[in-house]
C-alpha cells in the first residue's frame, strides 16, 4: 500500500510543493498525453485529503476514459511524486511542460511500476521509491540469512530483524554495527507500516507461513530456498502472492547468472538438437525422525522453542534437532537443499517453469535411491549421478549434437567447441568475478538486486514464486517416489497424483495447532 499521511501532514507537504498526485494506473497515460500536448496539468484542491493535488484536464472528451473531462484521484489509489525543487502551488495554476517532464523523469522507475505489463502485474507502490531506499525487514538471521543481509545492494536498507533465536540476531546486528530493532517474534515486523519488504531466510519448515503473512500485510518477499516443506504449502504461497500482487523472489540465485542463462537457453532453444537424456545428481533424501524422542535438554537462553518448532509436532528441546536439515520432520535432505538449485536448472533448460514431469519411478530402493522422471514431451531425467561426482548445481544434458554440463556459474561440453561458442556471448572474467565467493560467500547480491528492481517496476522477478514452487515440487516428488518405492503418475496441471490417494496424502503435512497457514 502507498504510505498514508495524516491530512494535515499531507496538506503541508503539498503546500511546500513536495508532491503531485493522481491515480497510479493513469501515470503512463497522463505522461504520454502531456508530452503530445493533448492535455494540460493544473494544480487543484483535493478536499478528501486536504492537500493540493494534480489534475489533468483532458483536451478531447473521453480520450482517457473519463467523461467528466478530468482525472479524479480518489484517496485510496493516489500516487505522490516527490519534487526536487519546491514549487509552491496556487489553486488552478498551470504547470509548465518542462517542469512536469523533469519531475516525471525523476520518477521514471515509479512510472514503470504503475503500469501492468505482459510479464508482470500492477501492485501498490510506495511514493518514495523513485529517490529513496527500499526498507527491508529480515525474518531469520541464521547463517544464510546473515549472508544475504550483508549482500543487500545500496537501493535497500535493513530497518529491523526478527529471529526466534534472538541472541543470534543481536550478534549479527552488533557485527555490522546496526542500530535497528531486533524482535523474537517476526509478526512485529509484519505489523510495521514503514517496512516495504522482507527477506525470509528461516528453515524451510518455518518459511511459507511468514511469507504468506507478509504478502497479506502488503510486503514484497525474498524467500530463501528451499521454498517449501511440501507441495501444497508451496501452492498456497503462490496463490497468496498472486492474490495480493506481491513480488516474491525465490533464492535460487543461479537464475540471475548470465553463464547459466545462456547455457540453459541453448538447450531450451534446440541448439544441441534433440535431448536424449538428462543426468542429474541423486541427492540424498531426509532421514526418518527417530522413533525414540531424544531426552529433554535445557532450552538455551533467548530461544523461543515453540516458535522454532513452527508447524512440526511438539517435542522437548534437544540440540540434536538443531541439525534440522537431515530430518524429514523439518526438511527434504539434500534433495531439496542442493536439488533446489540443480532441478531448477533442469526446469529452466527444458522450458518447464510452469509444469513438471508426468511419470516417476524408482531405479533403486531406499531413501537415497536413484529416480527416473519423464516429462510430457518425452524428455527423461535420471537422478543417477553420485553426489560429489557431478554438477551439484545443475545437470548433464545429453543431446544429439553433444553433451553440455551446466553447474553453478560454469559449463563444460563435449565436444569442447560447444562451450567455446557459448563463451563468446559472455564476459566470462567479469561474470566469474561478480559471483565469486571471494566477494561474498554464496553470492546472491545481483539476485537480490533483481528482486529490488522488480519491487519498483512490478515485473515478475527472474526466480518468481511460481518458478520456485514448480522446481522444488519436482524435488518433493523425487522424495515421495523413494518413500513409496513404486512408479507414480503425476498431473502437473492439477498438482496431484493420478488415481493414487496414498501418494496424494504425501503432498501435505499435518500442521501443529497455532501454526496453520492463513486463508
Brief summary of the model shown:
By secondary structure, the chain is α/β, with parallel strands linked by helices. Helix content is 32%, strand content 18%.
Structure description:
This protein has 519 residues and is an alpha/beta fold. It has 18 helices and 19 strands. The strands form four sheets. The chain has a nine-stranded mixed sheet with strand order 17-16-15-11-14-13-12-18-19. A hairpin with a 4-residue loop joins strand 18 (488-491) and strand 19. Helix 8 (208-216) runs parallel beside helix 9 and helix 13 (339-350) packs across helix 17 (465-484). The chain is globular, with a radius of gyration of 26 Å. The model is unreliable at 1-95 and 97-118 (pLDDT under 50).
Topology (SSEs and partners):
Layout: H1 7-15, E1 19-23, H2 27-35, E2 39-46, E3 51-58, E4 78-82, H3 97-106, H4 108-114, E5 134-139, H5 143-150, E6 156-162, H6 166-175, E7 182-183, H7 187-190, E8 197-200, H8 208-216, E9 220-223, H9 231-244, E10 248-250, H10 258-268, E11 275-281, H11 305-309, H12 333-337, H13 339-350, E12 359-362, E13 371-374, E14 380-385, E15 395-399, E16 402-407, E17 410-414, H14 417-423, H15 428-434, H16 445-457, H17 465-484, E18 488-491, E19 496-497, H18 501-504
Parallel strand pairs: 5-6, 5-8, 6-7, 8-9, 9-10, 11-14
Antiparallel strand pairs: 1-4, 2-3, 11-15, 12-13, 12-18, 13-14, 15-16, 16-17, 18-19
Helix pairs in contact: 4-16, 8-9, 9-17, 10-13, 13-17
Amino acid at each position: 500500500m502507498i504510505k498514508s499521511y495524516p491530512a494535515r501532514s499531507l496538506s503541508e507537504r503539498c503546500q511546500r510543493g513536495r508532491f503531485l498526485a493522481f491515480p497510479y494506473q493513469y501515470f503512463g497515460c497522463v505522461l504520454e498525453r502531456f508530452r503530445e500536448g493533448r492535455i494540460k496539468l493544473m494544480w487543484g484542491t483535493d478536499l478528501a485529503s486536504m492537500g493540493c493535488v494534480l489534475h489533468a484536464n483532458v483536451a478531447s472528451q473521453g480520450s482517457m476514459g473519463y467523461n467528466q473531462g478530468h482525472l479524479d484521484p480518489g484517496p485510496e489509489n493516489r500516487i505522490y511524486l516527490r519534487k526536487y525543487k519546491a514549487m509552491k502551488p496556487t489553486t488552478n495554476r498551470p504547470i509548465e511542460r518542462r517542469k512536469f517532464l523533469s519531475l516525471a523523469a525523476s520518477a521514471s522507475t515509479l512510472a514503470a511500476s504503475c503500469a501492468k505489463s505482459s510479464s508482470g502485474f500492477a501492485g501498490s507502490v510506495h511514493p518514495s521509491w523513485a529517490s529513496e531506499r527500499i526498507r527491508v525487514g529480515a525474518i531469520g538471521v541464521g547463517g544464510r540469512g546473515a549472508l544475504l543481509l550483508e549482500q543487500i545492494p545500496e537501493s535497500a536498507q535493513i530497518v529491523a530483524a526478527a529471529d526466534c533465536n534472538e541472541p543470534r540476531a543481536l550478534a549479527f546486528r552488533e557485527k555490522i554495527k546496526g542500530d535497528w530493532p531486533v524482535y523474537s517474534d517476526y509478526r512485529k515486523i509484519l505489523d510495521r507500516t514503514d517496512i516495504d519488504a522482507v527477506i525470509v531466510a528461516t528453515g524451510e519448515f518455518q518459511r511459507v507461513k511468514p511469507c504468506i503473512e507478509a504478502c497479506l500485510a502488503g510486503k514484497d518477499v525474498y524467500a530463501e530456498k528451499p521454498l517449501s516443506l511440501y507441495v501444497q504449502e508451496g501452492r498456497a504461497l503462490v496463490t497468496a502472492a498472486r492474490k495480493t500482487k506481491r513480488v516474491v523472489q525465490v533464492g535460487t540465485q543461479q537464475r540471475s547468472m548470465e553463464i547459466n542463462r545462456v547455457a540453459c537457453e541453448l538447450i531450451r532453444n534446440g541448439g544441441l538438437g534433440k535431448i536424449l537424456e538428462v543426468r542429474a545428481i541423486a541427492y540424498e533424501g531426509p532421514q526418518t525422525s527417530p522413533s525414540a524422542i531424544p531426552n529433554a535438554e535445557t532450552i538455551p537462553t533467548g530461544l523461543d522453542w515453540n516458535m522454532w518448532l513452527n508447524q512440526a509436532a511438539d517435542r522437548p528441546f534437544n540440540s540434536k534437532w538443531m541439525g534440522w536439515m537431515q530430518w524429514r520432520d523439518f526438511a527434504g535432505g539434500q534433495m531439496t537443499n542442493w536439488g533446489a538449485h540443480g532441478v531448477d536448472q533442469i526446469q529452466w533448460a527444458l522450458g518447464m517453469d510452469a509444469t513438471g514431469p508426468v511419470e516417476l519411478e524408482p531405479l533403486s530402493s531406499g531413501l537415497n535411491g536413484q529416480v527416473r522422471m519423464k516429462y510430457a514431451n518425452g524428455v527423461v531425467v535420471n537422478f543417477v549421478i553420485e553426489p560429489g561426482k557431478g554438477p551439484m548445481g545443475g545437470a548433464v544434458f545429453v543431446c544429439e549434437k553433444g553433451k553440455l554440463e551446466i553447474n553453478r556459474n560454469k559449463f563444460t561440453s563435449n565436444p569442447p567447441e560447444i562451450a567455446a561458442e557459448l563463451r563468446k556471448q559472455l564476459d566470462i572474467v567479469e561474470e566469474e568475478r561478480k559471483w565469486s565467493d571471494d566477494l561474498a560467500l554464496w553470492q546472491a547480491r545481483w539476485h537480490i538486486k533483481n528482486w529490488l528492481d522488480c519491487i519498483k517496476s512490478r515485473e515478475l522477478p527472474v526466480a518468481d514464486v511460481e518458478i520456485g514452487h514448480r522446481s522444488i515440487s519436482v524435488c518433493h516428488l523425487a522424495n515421495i517416489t523413494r518413500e513409496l518405492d513404486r512408479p507414480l503418475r503425476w498431473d502437473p496441471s492439477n498438482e496431484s497424483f493420478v488415481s493414487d490417494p496414498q501418494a496424494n496424502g504425501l503432498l501435505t503435512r499435518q500442521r501443529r495447532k497455532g501454526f496453520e497457514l492463513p486463508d
